[in-house]
Specification:
mainly beta
Amino acid sequence: MSNMRVQSLHVHPVKSLTGVDLQEAAVEPWGLAADRRWAVLGADSKVITQREQPRLALATARPLGGGAVALAGPGLGGLTVEVPAAGEVVPFLIFGKKVEGRLADPAAHAWFSAYLGVPARLVHLDEPEHRRPVDPEFALPGETVSLADGYPLLVATLASLDALNALVAQGDRAAEGPLPMNRFRPNVVVAGATPWAEDGWRRLAIGGVEFRVARSCGRCVVTTTDQETAERGKEPLRSLARHRRQGGQLIFGQLLVPVTLGTIRTGDEVRVLA
């Protein structure tokens, strides 16, 4: 029996908004149910993330039944947004790739425009024909993802976070640590592993659901954004650059693709199958 367990589960219903903690989550082929099914678009029809607008970290989209979300943000009243079953289908760009999705009700566009202070629209992507292929360099035929950066799920371990924070404490930006796990925006947080053990994982079972490990997760400027204040620093990228560089990327966590489907829960056993 493995000593590893699921410590916590998280979804981000609107891409780049704050995470929502769950006790259980259904695993779908393209990610956890309700995770990153919505995105905010700028006037240029490109997805807006915390890379461009760190203030997105302070807004919340709580999942409701049927895919709807309840928006909340500092300085604004709440707004419930339903899935746009008959909304206009529009093209948009995510990391330079063209995708199509349905526009939300205009009230959602007005909400995000007021919140960010720039023209913005909210789009929903959850129809099978609109889902994106996983990066073909690391994908198996037919694998898809919703609006996550590139893969259906991200797993991280508490032991590796502790090890990274020890590295931060030794560096010249020690005052920025220790960093919380929400800097890395994982779906699954695992307790009971040894530091960096996930680098060697190739196949996992979480509860009764199996996953393959596609690759390590390269990290970006979003990890330097305090998810409570939206202020930016230098860590963890400075420490990752010194100690966790792989193939030109700074890595923390592993990217997963479901092999089987089901429900995973906090407390579930995590087993390394390969």
